[in-house]
Amino acid sequence: MAGVTKMGKRNLYLKTVSVEEAQERFMEKLEPCLEVQYEEIEVVNSLHRITKEASIARYCSPLFNASAMDGIAVVSAHTLGASEKTPVALEEGRDYVVVDTGDPIHPPYDAVIMAEDIVETESGEHTILQAAAPWDNIRPIGEDIVTGEMILPSNHKIRPMDIGALLSAGILTIPVVKKPRMAIYPTGTEIIEPTETPGEGDIIESNSRVIENRVTEGGGIPHRFPAIPDDYEKIRETLVHAIQTHEMVIINAGSSAGREDYTVQVLRELGEVVVHGVAMKPGKPVILAIVQGKPVIGLPGYPVAAYMAYESFVVPVLNKLTGQVDTQGSRAKAVVSKRLVSSLKHREYVRVKLGVVKDKLVASPLARGAGAAMSMVKADGCLIIPQNSEGIGAGESAEVVLYKALTEIVQTLVVIGSHDLILDLIADRLPAIYQDEYLSSTHVGSMGGLMALKRGEAHMAPIHLLDEADGSYNVNVVKSLFKEPMALIQGVGRVQGLMVKPGNPLGIQGFEDLRAHRFVNRQRGAGTRLLLDYNLKKRGISPDSILGYSQELTTHMAVAAAVGSDGADVGMGVQSAAMAMGLDFIPVGEESYDFALPQENLEMPEVKHFIEILKSDALKEKLTALGGYAIEHSGEILHIDGRE
Amino acid sequence: MAGVTKMGKRNLYLKTVSVEEAQERFMEKLEPCLEVQYEEIEVVNSLHRITKEASIARYCSPLFNASAMDGIAVVSAHTLGASEKTPVALEEGRDYVVVDTGDPIHPPYDAVIMAEDIVETESGEHTILQAAAPWDNIRPIGEDIVTGEMILPSNHKIRPMDIGALLSAGILTIPVVKKPRMAIYPTGTEIIEPTETPGEGDIIESNSRVIENRVTEGGGIPHRFPAIPDDYEKIRETLVHAIQTHEMVIINAGSSAGREDYTVQVLRELGEVVVHGVAMKPGKPVILAIVQGKPVIGLPGYPVAAYMAYESFVVPVLNKLTGQVDTQGSRAKAVVSKRLVSSLKHREYVRVKLGVVKDKLVASPLARGAGAAMSMVKADGCLIIPQNSEGIGAGESAEVVLYKALTEIVQTLVVIGSHDLILDLIADRLPAIYQDEYLSSTHVGSMGGLMALKRGEAHMAPIHLLDEADGSYNVNVVKSLFKEPMALIQGVGRVQGLMVKPGNPLGIQGFEDLRAHRFVNRQRGAGTRLLLDYNLKKRGISPDSILGYSQELTTHMAVAAAVGSDGADVGMGVQSAAMAMGLDFIPVGEESYDFALPQENLEMPEVKHFIEILKSDALKEKLTALGGYAIEHSGEILHIDGRE
User: Fold this and answer.
1) Of A5, A267, A514, A599, which has the fewest CB atoms closer than 10 Å, so is most exposed?
2) pLDDT per residue over A383-401, tens digit each?
3) What is the pTM of this model?
4) Predicted ipTM?
5) Residue B33 is part of a domain; what is its CATH number?
6) CA A101 to chain centre
7) Residue B7 within a domain
């Protein structure tokens, strides 16, 4: 943390431009300078390389007139008149020679008869029952490949079968596009290598590793360098050197506007900054520059922003340098399960989970933050909200770029509702045991899950909803919301409790003690919040008397983190979150975490397998080891009859 | 070539089994023995590897409560009441500290205000116009990743974004499936390395290179060994050794039944031959064996047969060993442009070119021979004729496994008709100049091309059809066959002539000399055949008087090859074929090779670009260098009006 002087240095962005305009402006300036380089390599090592020019066959294949069968090469004229009734006897050396498949055929022999069609008589004579026509069963020279024929065109990605044909045609080396060398520089003083132990304020550098592997996938050679500290001279010096030895330079500019400015200033000094700031979210603080005719791209620091900016601006340049055709990923139309508001100021990229429910492709948005690296890992696709749109309503459809094959998505059990670690465990087991079946879970809370079920956008909703009237869980609320026959697959009993600092320094024992300390609450509608309210009411404690009752966080872990980092003295949640954060835990009750679904979905194979895993000893052992779970009824089914 | 004794050794196949039965029988016996192996590797080197087990986060991300913005960290309670009308002045150190994005936030600070929202008054004071709520612009510890959370499930193929998340979660090494080692042995005494100069009877070994690269693509480590000669003891010895050091052995058994038998006998001695001979075409002589619990697969010798058998039998085993899910290639329904007859004895795999004509996906079969390696290179897909089918009629639809993305296929100009090298040249230029546009050409002769055009299965038909009435080319036949408005894009004039042995030892000068020598003819309907007949008729020469008039070959090159290999003394064809085979050439006339198409197709961008390339100086230079072409009218368009 620095002084106010640091603030004084900050510049506002240049006026941001649209994604298309940024791409066009950059490529237009860049294209005259970009030069694809070539090299001659051995054909046997050319897999997946891109050809420079058409390859022309040096040899024919076959190289000579060759027998296509195991049998005998004959003079066709000597076989005339042969039939079932008038077999013709042949004499070796005069009428035929024995040949194997691939043997050369010379005059006077001009046809081959298969071994199976030769009849050996009792007297040991070899006879045939059918005449041969000239060229029968002979592969003429050049049948497959002719000298001078084009084997591969230019700009072609070499496949295994291409290598076979090239070698057969006598081609041993081939000119291909040389892989461009791409320098990748993380920047930032707070950045540490993953191998170092992080202290407070340290950020583990991982973006450069993502970029490095995307470059490899894209056909470039990545050179990933250690982080450059935030030092104008160092950045300048490093860039001057990198540009000499690489076809492209990528700077991961750090997420701070101050730092980004260093990079922009250095690039202005060394060359031309074509674009600074693009109307996309995430990904806005991107820098597109040209230094000595070479592209230098500054990517934002947040992981998702870096990734999206890479796809939009680095990939087109890399495609040019590697001679590849721009390929857009597969796209599909999907129904959005949750309203998405977006601004007219930018194009927005929203990661989504996908699944097919009642023949509809359903997209459930994941965390939208630029820092949410896990949203990239969990995503099945990316939904694009155009710059001229204010958003997409729930139930409306939108275009999605697919990160997974549609065939995989079809066999995905779509689970929307409240989160528990048990979903991760089952999501892990399902594809491992039942090939090609997947579980996708989206976390919108219990009521959100039941609403998704009602709209036909989920197969199953994990819920923990208390009926304040009788203290029971889940059954009553499902009965009251659905007309059709429903079921509850019983999940686990979860111990809920108060989370306090290690050693419980304030001596908190129960709900009565909340009034004296700084509390942090969950959001309205959360099962934990309902349990709290039920207990406060039962005890006659007014919410107004609790300091921080109105301070809402949206996950168990966020509450645990708030307590752990002294943002609060006490919060309420499940035992596993407290354990993960090293907090003390005071149990106050048990809640039922179950899976609601229409009865007809019980027939889905994915649901049957879900139940099998839920009942398995392997899963129960894991839950026992984690602690805080009651598992005696896991996998049992409660039927909730439909109403008229 | 060996004596009859060689024939005596040959065994008939065991009864062949269907593809499905062979796969099931083999996998059933094999699965109890197959053991997937694992190894722990560095996460930074784990791209595209398959995870062994779920990876669990060691750290949270962020690791601490962090500022999400550049700005100031404030005590939210000190900002209460701030508004446009009642700005609140803040004092550094007491009310706020300056923070950059990512900086840790400590109590008493509990919110961040963006730099842009701070107003500096004339007196130098920093004021705010809006109160901050607790946790505003703070990324709580664990917001993205929580300790104990599952980052990746088991059996997951690691992507670049996964590597980023693993590193952020403090995971440095990861257990993954160890790549299986696959031994690949070509066999055969006639086989030479591509680097050797082939003599007669030699076959350039290329199958092992195709297999090697397919193994690499499939996630295995290929070890390709030099060819084993046809020697029982050598084969036995080599196999015994290979099985110790590899997870799987592939023998490319050579195409001879005799040789295959060696392999089968050795495998019977060393282990169990589960399947020998499968009802598929090409690919029948496949051997599926298990030796010491390890799979040993004998692939057929012909290139296409080896490839198809690899896909059917090696891929499923390799998928098991690499922990990958079986993925079937993309499939589509296509209309077949030519009748395909097949036998009930086997499932047949036919390579096809694909294109979209009038919204129909059209499949044009390529050469069906097992030796036609170029059919693999040229194919856009593979059509499967089931074992229980006798074939598919022209215009009927069938399922095709796609080798190319449908998006590429849509932008393909479908050309069906007579072949000339000029099509290869344009097919090469088109995607190089106009990204994403392709030309697919199928060779069925001029009349076949016009019929395909009539059935709406081609965009354009290259033809060279003589009108015997007046000696003109192409215009009259198109006019007589089509009612709608048609066009001819003029192609090239081609010099046709008689091909004779080098030095013309028989002194052949013209059509009159054909009577005295062994002739080889083209098939009925071929343009060259029509030109011959026209000239014979003009000169009053009877076809019956020509020895070999009824001997038909289907390409210029096959005719040239027949003359070159002394299968005949003289044949007729284009100059380029004679030159390719080193023959002498006696010009006898010029024919027009043009491109017929409906006038409406002239509007297609691919057709416009085709014409541009046809007219280009670059193409004309190439044709001039090849010789035998008249190019003065190339690219000019003749309109042929429609009839009522």
Assistant:
1) A5
2) 999 988 999 988 899 999 9
3) 0.84
4) 0.85
5) 3.40.980.10
6) 49
7) no
